[in-house]
Amino acid sequence: MTVRPQKSGKAFSFSKENEKKAKEFISHYPKSKQASAVIALFELAQRQSGGWLPEEAIVYVAQYLDMPLIRATEVATFYTMFNLKPVGEHFIQVCTTTPCWLRGTDAIMTTCQKELGIGAGQTTKDKKFTVVEVECLGACVNAPVVQINDDFYEDLDAKSFEELLLALKAGKPIKPGSALARQCSAPVGFSPQANTVKVAVKKAEATKKPDSPKAAAPKAQTTPRPKAKLAPKASTGATKLNGKSAPRTGQKKNKDV
Amino acid sequence: MPKMTINGKEVEFEAGMTILQVAEVSGVEIPVFCYHPKLNIAGNCRMCLVEVEKSPKPVASCAMPAAEGMVVRTNSPYVEKARKGVLEFLLINHPLDCPICDQGGECDLQDLTLYYGPGVGKYKENKRSVSEKYFGPLIKTWMTRCIHCTRCVRFASEIAGTSELGGVGRGEHTEIVTSAIEGAIASELSGNMIDICPVGALTSKPYAFRGRSWELTKTDSIDVFDGVGANIRVDSIGTEVMRILPRQNDDVNEEWLADKSRFAYDGLKSQRLDRPYVRNNKGKLVEATWDQAFSAIALKLKDAKKERVAALVGGMVELESAFVLKQLMLSLGVKNIDCRHDMSDYDVSKPGHYRFNTTIAGIEDADVCLLIGTQPRFEAPLINARLRKRYFQNGLQAALIGASYESTFPLEHLGDDAAILNEILSGKHSFAKILKNAKAPMIILGEGALTSTNGSDIHTLARAIADTHKMIRKDWNGFNVLHTSASRVGCLDIGFVPVKGGLGTREIIQKSQKGLMDILYLLSVDDIPPSALEKPFVIYQGHHGDQSAAHADVILPGAAYTEKEGTYVNVEGRVQRAFKAIFPPGEAKEDWKIVRALSDYVDGGLEYVNLDQLRHAMIAEFPHLKVLNVATPEAIDASKATDQKDVKGKLKPTIANYYMTDPISRNSLTMARCTQEIIEGKWPKLGLIGE
Ligand code: SF4
Ligand code: FES
Ligand code: FES
After folding, report:
1. CA B43/CA B457 separation, integer angstroms
2. Average pLDDT over residues A115-140
3. Which residue, among B684, B572, B501, B618, has the nearest Cα to B251 in the 3D structure?
4. Are A74 and B168 in contact (CB under 8 A)?
5. Is B164 an 8 Å CB contact of chain A?
6. Contact: B168, A77; criterion CB under 8 Å
């Protein structure tokens, strides 16, 4: 199918403050090269339209920058970060590239199924959540990584991710960053105050036993990577079977599915 | 000059050339898909990979500048392997449907796979399939075959100047589409995308499944749908023109062709005059023999007063028949002859006055251009393409006085009143300053200005502007007249204008309307008001039963441009020869022969027995016609300031509908479709495949 942006059915124009930002972006480029600001303006437009870029906004930005519509459409359809159809309030991007996948992405996807009832590329009925699979988010060191709206949530496992989702469902604030309270990309548990790495590593092992890399990796290798688009019916099945939410079971069942 | 080594041979090159270009001039062939010499470099197909010493990877030669001391190999096993790999990948998703593909036999992918590709593919999975797109009535799409070279996209945005095509999506999901709002591609040059598409993704809709390239007889010819004189190749089978393609001539059409010239050929098959007709005493046109037709004319001519006889020549006529007609008329004592059937009337005493003196290729040196009463986009799409090329490459400051239109390059509209010219001449207008400061300014004077009632004054004034702004120098001639018809400049060259004391077209028409003319000889003239044809005895010689034929008293069936040999002189004064591709239908004859035969009935004294003789006579009288395919700028008489009259009046457009301007295109189904789908915007909903 040809990639085409959806229509929102509403006229689009920049809000006052976005207008100001847009002008600022355009001023970064030489005169008559204003079209260079197209990506920045799309980003503004996407935020303003609630996380996605309707056709109206693309047409508006193309006119705003005095560029042919098709050139703008090319840009909008090329970059996967522009959503061409509506997304939920919480836009969940699950990294499923190799490092994250080795560290348990499958469990994250299953949790989505279980908690939200949706798989990759789907949006909940109440328009609260959208889940997509993405390629490397660039934070592999804290794999597995999930990006929810603008923030990264790292070092996740089924349980910590489930907690995040439950909090979001309940409308409670969630804290971005590592679920293991890791500092940046330092070894888990390392803190400048304690100043000893050894203790930190021990602590980490204690907390992380259930899915330590050694245990998970060999299984993972034999498990096919779940396809991006699970048929909805099959997904429901998987959700039930995966009730225990143990990552390994989940992976096995996935294989059966 | 820097040197490099290609395949062990040392070659010199100019700095700035790419490896591919160096290879080309040194006779080494490198296969390409996305590279096109007239388009910007994209470097996305990788077919042109070569081995460059000390480079860790094969290098895309089309995008890599050649450098001093480079050692390049294009024939090593390493390169062969790279090419095989590229082709294998291209063929992963390309359907192997050559037997049902219209590009078969002239497909780059087919040829290159044959020469450089792997014998078999390893890919067993499903191929990608892409839905058809609507590109208008001229281009048939089969997008599954697209290899994403983006030539068509670059052509649309760079040459045609209508950014309507683009590649949306990414990777395997990339598709070439028209703008988000689907519709026909509104460009007069869209047919060229068919030529530049290296595969069968874009093919000709009117020609779909009509023939194979190897079955066609190819004849070199010259286009007659506008004054540019584009070089064309007529492909025919038997007695039928199957299609028309451009031939490369960088001085004229480069390698492009306008859509009307390319697609109107189906008009050659309908409404043709294939036998003589004579109007009987009941007022009905009935079939006749040549003898009857000529006798009827002779009878009329014998008693006619010569001042009440006139001959006009139409826009598609080749020079030879105009020449013999002029000779015939002069020997009969007829002074009322004119080739300017559009009623333009201005001083044509010097060739420079009516030619495109800058020359078409010369446009690329201009920096300022003033258009007066012309819309080159519709009147001469290929000249428009040059103007755009100049704008695209180096910038061109252009302005228009005349009816505004959607130009394919930025064009400042100064207004449509000729009075602005007075202001420019006197230096009061702001554009006068721009012209003054320009290094190589040019004026293009179009028929919209020349056919207005004070066309002659506008012409004088334009010459004065050219003179005062130093447009006529030793190294530069910026005075241009843009005619819309193929025959005009040639006919002016041989003086097919009223002889001293004779009448011009405007008077001839006025007198005919009043019944003051007895005989009108129309050589393929179809665009004069029918009211002028009611009273006089009209002889119509031409190939289509169009507007004039219906009012004719004698019809002499002639040959269309594909059916006769002929000489054409384009707007620049370039003399070009066309050859005969097919025979005229039925009893129709080549036009010069008809005039020659008539001469015997009316004692016209024409003696020619073949075309060579005729050409000799013509060249003897007009020696410049001997030199083929050159255009030399001609000087103009700068009018003195005292000659100028102030001019005023709105300048009207000359072409209402680009797709229908002459008997052939008016009878073409394809052109009717273009009118409907492109101009009126009524385009059909898409099915899955095909039309
Ligand atoms: S349609 Fe033809 S010219 Fe256009 S990108 Fe595809 S292969 Fe290239
Ligand atoms: S692989 Fe997931 S962030 Fe890099
Ligand atoms: S021809 Fe060089 S990359 Fe296509």
Report:
1. 53
2. 94
3. B572
4. yes
5. yes
6. yes
One domain for residues A25 and A94: no
Reported confidence tier of residue B478, pLDDT bands at 50, 70, 90: very high
Are A23 and A61 contained in the same domain?
yes
Is residue B387 a contact partner of residue B370, using CB atoms and an 8 Å limit?
no
CATH number of the domain located at residue range(s) B351-484 in this protein = 3.40.228.10
A137 lines ligand 2 (CB under 6 A): yes
Question: Which domain does A41 fall in, by range?
Answer: 16-78
Contact between B185 and B178 (Cβ < 8 Å): yes
Using the predicted structure, report yes or no on whether residue A190 has a pLDDT greater than 80.
Answer: no
pLDDT at A248 over 60: no
**A102, A170: one domain:** yes
Closest by CA position to B598, among listed B325, B196, B317: B325
Pocket of ligand 3 (CB under 6 A): B 32-35, 43-48, 60, 62-63
Would you say residue A257 has pLDDT above 90? Answer: no
Residue A197 backbone class (left: φ over 0; alpha: ψ -120 to 50; beta: rest):
alpha
Tell me whether B177 touches chain A (CB under 8 Å). Answer: yes
- pLDDT band per the 50, 70, 90 thresholds, residue A256: very low
Q: In total, how many domains does chain A have? A: 2
| Closest CA to ligand 1's atom 3 | B197
The predicted structure's pLDDT at residue A206: 54
Q: Are residues A99 and A74 in the same domain?
A: no
B202 lines ligand 1 (CB under 6 A): yes
Q: What is the pLDDT of residue B381?
A: 96
C-alpha gyration radius of chain A: 21
Of residues B365, B341, B360, B352, the one with CA closest to residue B459:
B352
Residue of chain A whose alpha carbon sits nearest to that of B129: A1
CATH code that applies to domain B277-342+488-621: 3.40.50.740
Question: Residue B143: what residue type?
Answer: M
* pLDDT at res. B184: 79
According to CATH, the topology of domain B3-92 is Ubiquitin-like (UB roll) (3.10.20)
By C-alpha distance, which of B319, B347, B360 is closest to B567? B319
- Would you place residue B163 in the very low, low, confident or very high pLDDT band (cuts 50, 70, 90)? confident
pLDDT digits (tens, 9 = 90+) for B245-289: 999 999 999 999 999 999 999 999 999 999 999 999 999 999 999
Who's near A179: CB < 8 A, 6+ residues apart? A153, A154, A155, A156, A157, A160, A161
The answer to whether residues A107 and A137 belong to one domain is yes
3-class DSSP assignment, residue A23: helix
Mean model confidence pLDDT for chain B:
93
B231-237, strands of its sheet edge to edge: B217-222, B231-237, B240-246
pLDDT value of residue B619: 96
The rounded distance, in Å, linking the Cα atoms of B499 and B338 is 9
- pLDDT value at A60 more than 50: yes
A84: nearest CA partner in chain B: B169
Residue A108 has pLDDT above 80, yes or no: yes
How many Cβ pairs within 8 Å bridge chains A and B?
A: 48
Task: Tell me what the mean pLDDT of segment B559-585 comes to.
Answer: 96
Token pair 């060191």 is at which residue? A141
Q: What are the structure tokens assigned to B519, written together?
A: 């005989």
Name the architecture of domain B98-269: 2-Layer Sandwich (3.30)
Q: Which of A178, A196, A225 is the last residue of a domain?
A: A178
Asked, for residue A204, whether it belongs to a domain, the answer is: no
Give first-to-last CA distance, chain A, whole Å.
26
Ligand 1 neighbourhood includes B156 CB (under 6 angstroms): no
* Interchain contact, B168 vs A59, CB within 8 Å: no
Dist CA B431 CA B408 (whole Å): 21
Please state, in angstroms and rounded to a whole number, the distance separating the CA atoms of residues B151 and B41.
Answer: 9
pLDDT on residue B688: 38
